[in-house]
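Example complex used in Figure S2.
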Amino acid sequence: MDRFTSLTGTALPLRRSSVDTDQIIPAVYLKRVTRSGFEDGLFAAWRKDPDFVLNRPEYDGCRILVAGPDFGTGSSREHAVWALQDSGFKVVLSSRFADIFRSNAGKTGLLAAQVDQEVIERLWADCEADPALGVTVDLERREVRFAEVVAPFEIDDYTRWRLLEGLDDIGLTLTHGAEIADFEANRPAWMPSVL
Amino acid sequence: MARTLAEKVWDEHVVRSAPGEPDLLFVDLHLIHEVTSPQAFDGLRLAGRRVRRPDLTLATEDHNVPTVDVDQPIADPVSATQVETLRSNAREMGVRLHSLGDVEQGIVHVVGPQLGLTQPGMTIVCGDSHTSTHGAFGAIAFGIGTSEVEHVLATQTIAQTKPRTMAVTVNGSLADGVTAKDLVLALIARMGTGGGQGYIVEYRGAAVESLSMEARMTLCNMSIEWGAKAGMVAPDQTTFDYVRGRMHAPTGSEWDNAVAHWQRLVTDEGARFDEEVVLEAAEVTPFVTWGTHPGQGVPLSGSVPDPAELPDTGDRVAAEKALEYMQLAAGTPMREIAIDTVFVGSCTNGRIEDLRAAAAVVRGRQVAAHTRLLVVPGSTRVRLQAEDEGLDVVFKDAGGEWRGAGCSMCLGMNSDQLQPGERSASTSNRNFEGRQGRGGRTHLVSPLVAAATAVTGRLASPSDLPTADTATA
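Predicted assembly (668 residues):
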């Protein structure tokens, strides 16, 4: 996965709380055989409403999702994170995340940054007033900056380190590549090979 | 320090161990099939990664392949897409694949042992919970999820917290007509579907030692059905005799080196298990399920239990729901339950010994008029062997259907499904609601009970049948 240090972009104000993973991506969109292309299922039910914020052209290209509290509750599906990433989102801001969603996000490189609800409210108002407003999410300094606001966000040290280094589970294991190679070199000769 | 079999095999595979972290284990064999692998391969591709050890990775098509007209294009579009995706992934990543029509194709857990790729002391993983089957050889073998499949493809390792150990000792010997399947169903009924949670189980004792390799596979296969991480049997002469001479078995001096090592893969005198369970083999009789999980079973000679008599509230509620789904009345003798379809097959009981046992029962007899007998070999090799022995003719003469290899009606991902309301006696491993087809009702049984049931049309054991001579006369 890509390293994440700091990102500046526009933000999508999603004025909803308790957004569960069935809302993020309904089960009917889980059938594909690829790891990409899940953008077609993102908020699929809500997108049937032409006025839904994600359908509005002024929010095209947003990379930061600003959501209400308890984001990502319900089913453990990893597809919820994939659907957000496939739609171009790099960051979700919320005042409270569901544990499994937060964990899935960290493993896959989506930054789930926890900020105070007052900051969320201010962001909603500012982004609605000016959809082109630039918002910076700075992982090194653990800060969200927009207009004159500078607000801290919370993320655990381990996940922050993995995001800064761009290490998914596989990347993390591959940092021990020398130990794996050592082990491989010392396997008994009788062990079977399929080739 | 005295160690258990599981601890020895575990220790031999630790690539890296650090306090507060799961151990990183090397994977000796990674088995792949079409259903749980597509997104793992795609994840690799998106990250620009390759399969680290194609030489330790084997793919086969099993879960949703058809068992009839196997030379025709697959009719179901989702199945066709998954199979085609596996084929292109295997081509692109250099993974050996046994496709439909290939002589080595079959259920992944039948194919590995058959090729001699499953050997004592290995670590084996697959995106399938019945990977526990391979523990019969004294390997640590368990199922993993799709993200883990991707991890193993990329690194040939898996991060795992060391499970606790449990011994299941089975004393004595199983009576004639009582199989490993009856033993494990009786064990699950006693332990509950969660009784093995967090454990690697070692099956041991005289009754286990006297089981054939195929019977040990049946036993280990069902470990997951009572929640165990894995099941194992210590390798012995039976194991060595089974492995010797197979395509990927060691040869020459490497064979001797291997056997010398394998002989040390036993639990040391004085080693301690975290939990111990003891069963008397002589007490086990043909065992069948009445409910909707594998722990809801009784002896064939018994009756459907009365939920009101169950001491535990959770069990009582589950039993009431199960009986409603199964459309069974408490107190009904199991032998009175009429069966529409008998399924002989699966990674639990789809090997040659299972087919021989079932054929011996139906030989010279006829499948009951209202009952359908479906026989699906676990692999193409098993099918060919059975045909060589004339078993296909025995089943067909009796009025049964003889099919190509695959998972088939075990999980109804292909067109081999129960109709709503249909009732099966199945040699497979799961009697969950709708598993064999929407609205289908499943009774788990041994191959012997399955075959006798096909003849009588009701749950039965071979001892219930008039002798075959009488039947043919």
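The mean pLDDT of chain B is 96. The first strand of chain B starts at residue 14 and ends at 16.
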